[in-house]
Amino acid sequence: MKKELEHSFIELLEKHQNIVHKVCRLYTNNYDAHNDLFQEITIQLWKAYPKFRGDSKFSTWMYRVGLNTAITLYRKSKRRISTQDFEGVEFKIKAENYDDTEEQQLKILYEAVHQLNDIEKALVFLYLEDKDYREISETLGISEVNARVKMNRIKTKLKTILNP
Amino acid sequence: MMDELDLLKKDWNKDDNKYPKLTYNEIYKMILNKSSSIVKWIFIISLLEFAFWTVISFLLKDTESMKRFEQYDADAVFIPLMIFGYIILAYFFYLFFKNYKTISVTDNAKVLMENILKTRKTVKQYVAFNLIYLVISTVAVLYLEFEKDQQIINQVQQATANGEVFKFYATIIITTVLLLAVAIGILLLFYWLVYGILLKRLNSNYRELKKLDS
The RNA polymerase sigma factor 70 region 4 type domain covers which part of the protein (chain A) (predicted)? Predict the structure, then answer.
């Protein structure tokens, strides 16, 4: 029974692992920290999996557990010092039609998003993942109106960073 | 003009291959590892706190002065106090486990944070209870000593004869207060450090969420 559960869980996570990587990408900025957070989210997902009913989509359920781990349960990695920096190595931003200004803008945007606080990052993350305000408000436990207001503030904040 | 975030969104969802791909076996190894979440740490530290105060109360029971008390015929005071102490311990233990069980990573972020803080609060109240208990017991013990201990009674009489009774009492009271203050201070500093470090992130995120909804 446990083996079956393990098997179905690992297969699902293997398929949807990008969601976890994306959470890690937003909340960490080096290779070790990324792995550390990925590991913790995986453990939390696995611990919660027996109660996963399947009435919500696995991916939707993952957003919640992933974000909760990142903003609440996770203690920052002990292995802070790393020579490998993500933005430069793994996630090099490439514009399809090479556009210097767009690429430059994206780079600054990613840096700006990294400077946001944990809650703002969560909002941005769900927005980037195309979640509507209802789901954003349900995931964070705030009202839909306030989620909207906050999102607009974040947009203004990013605009200011980009066009000082 | 295109929204900044939409520009980011376009790029964010463009290329899923830029992320590492973990294999089945790599994920399998991960689920065998132990969590190092703050909930786990709060759980361990809380159990240690319960153990610490229980051990303290057992150790105090075997001290010389406690054995002397048995001769004072003060059972009418001490037995109810002891039973009261155990009932309180059981009550806090029950509350703590009840709160701990309600912590679920699938709740929304705000509820999850509130449940963790509630668990922490229960233990905090237990510690506060113990500190108050410590102060009350010290006062009770001092009172009994002055009433029953022949050696102290003699000393009081001698001090009275020398006209130094006020100084005698003042010295004892000040010493006791200072000792208690130092002991409580060290404990509080310890809690403040441990929980301060552990809950720094949670507290600031919780404040941020509450600010959003105010």
Answer: 108-158
Rounded average pLDDT over A25-45: 93
Q: Which residues of B touch A110 (CB under 8 A)?
A: 8
CATH number of A96-164: 1.10.10.10
Contact A72, A44 (CB under 8 A): no
Altogether, the residues listed in chain B come to a count of: 214
Please answer yes or no on whether A69 and B22 come within 8 Å at the CB atom. no
Q: Are the Cβ atoms of B106 and A90 closer than 8 angstroms? A: no
d(CA B112, CA B120): 13
Which pLDDT score is estimated for A98? Answer: 53
Give the tens place of pLDDT for each residue, B84-99.
888 998 999 899 999 9
Of B60, B76, B55, the C-alpha closest to B137 is: B60
Going from N- to C-terminal start, the domains of chain A cover: 1-76, 96-164
Task: With CB atoms and an 8 Å threshold, state whether B37 touches A90.
Answer: no
Which class in CATH covers the domain with range A1-76?
Answer: mainly alpha
The residues with which B99 forms a beta bridge, in sequence order, are none
Query: Strand locations in chain B, DSSP E?
Result: none
Nearest to B3 among A39, A106, A155 (CB): A155
> Helix (H, G, I), strand (E, B), or coil: what is residue A117?
coil
In Å, how far are A140, B70, B86, B148 from B73, measured between CA atoms? 60, 6, 21, 10
